[in-house]
């Protein structure tokens, strides 16, 4: 019974519930309500209208465009583009998760189903896997359902037109087969993620490891700096040396991380040097941000840094269009993790694109620069520094 009279027991119990609540919100609360909405997809209508034997015009492209744009239940934000080449450019620049391409001969192919020599056209579905596997898979599935719906509707319309033709008593075998599939559907994937990339989550994993590595460097350099100050070192000089030393460590650890990912785990890195440069910049921004907080707050900054990591990790591998509004606006928009993971995704999966379309690099440079200024500014605050006195014994 004496155990239950101890305050530490009840304080520990309360602490457990607080920790579970905080980390539950961090790991689950921000992502459990995730569902797709307004996924940007390119819609390419290259179809040309054709004239039917009865004098009417058939324009499948215009009909599909009108129906798709009027359907507000689809979790897709359509972006009309003129050509497939233009859509490909948008996919390369990470503007779209996919594309739905209606070819120029779609109406002509549908019209040919009523002849003895049907020539079905090919509708193309393109998934931008490197941009986000979860979102591109959802887009591919939705576009596949749309294609099947259009195919069924076209089959019914063509069958109705054939049945109205009194001259047709028997449907040829070729026409019958074509009616079952009035057009072909071809699915393509651009910017594939490669092998051993954790289903496209490798950028988030590397970001997490780099954050932890930078944090270890920050803590040990802070402890070493405190000892240097205790021996009488000048605070500004110590902090400047600490920052320079930390950046050297970041260069080495980021290179080791890239080598470990390739050599140990067989991770497919199409641009290993670009991945290394991105990790170096991200690690530098992480280290300087962590070091700045530690310089001002000391070890009490640790809970802030740990909570930032746990709150950010669940969201950086999820497409922003899947996140609840509160999580997107209050966490995803400003967490430094997303800028590193986003730039890693570009360097790892978009190697055939020469220039990054995003502002991730600029943001990371800004984080690093501001953090360095804040860190060095801490040298001007008044702190009590414990100096170490060394006694000298004189000998005769």
From TrEMBL:
It is found in: Membrane. It is a multi-pass membrane protein. Residues 7-373 form the ABC-2 type transporter transmembrane domain. The chain crosses the membrane at residues 205-224, 236-261, 273-297, 304-323, 358-377. Keywords: Membrane, Transmembrane, Transmembrane helix. GO terms for molecular function: ABC-type transporter activity. Pfam families: ABC2_membrane_3. GO terms for cellular component: membrane. Its main location: membrane. The keyword Glycosyltransferase does not apply. Signal peptide: none annotated. This is DUF3533 domain-containing protein.
